[in-house]
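Slack export, channel: ligand-projects

TW: morning all. Re-posting the request from yesterday since it got buried. We need the structure predicted with the small molecule present, not the apo form. The ligand is zinc ion; the SMILES is in the block with the sequence. No rush, but it would help planning for next week.
GE: picking it up
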Amino acid sequence: MSEMIIKGSCLCGEVQYEIHGPLKIFQYCHCSRCRKFTGSAHASNIFVPPEQFKWVQGEISVGRYEKPDAKYFATCFCKTCGSSLPWAVQGGRNVVVPAGTLDEDPELRPLHNSFWESRAPWHTETSDLPKFAELPKKKSK
Ligand SMILES: [Zn+2]
Ligand SMILES: [Zn+2]
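GE: finished. pasting the full token output, ligand included:
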């Protein structure tokens, strides 16, 4: 049986990485730091031990920011396209993989919402909103 390997990359494709299963923790994080970093309502993060993570290409293009007042939080991003990328927590015990940068289905699904109390006031369950296969249709006049 072959080991599960899931590939990921940034928007411009310069940086590529892979994570190795088994994957255990997948969570949405609504904390203000994750909202700033992702520019979105919440981060979608898979946690893997460092030995299950590998940069495949473009590691030289990976920027890193460590928030001075944070115990664990840091960010990594592509210096060319600005995409979020996996970041090792300060201290290095885990690598936090932004699931939106995966190119394949990790099969694991989100388990819970963390920092729910910090969620954006405008956060709305996506399931409560109308859905369009692509862009919303223009209203015909
Ligand atoms: Zn890039
Ligand atoms: Zn967070």
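GE: first-pass observations. The pocket of zinc ion (ligand 1) is lined by residues 10-12, 14-15, 78, 80-81, 83 (CB under 6 Å). The chain has a mean pLDDT of 94.
TW: perfect, thank you
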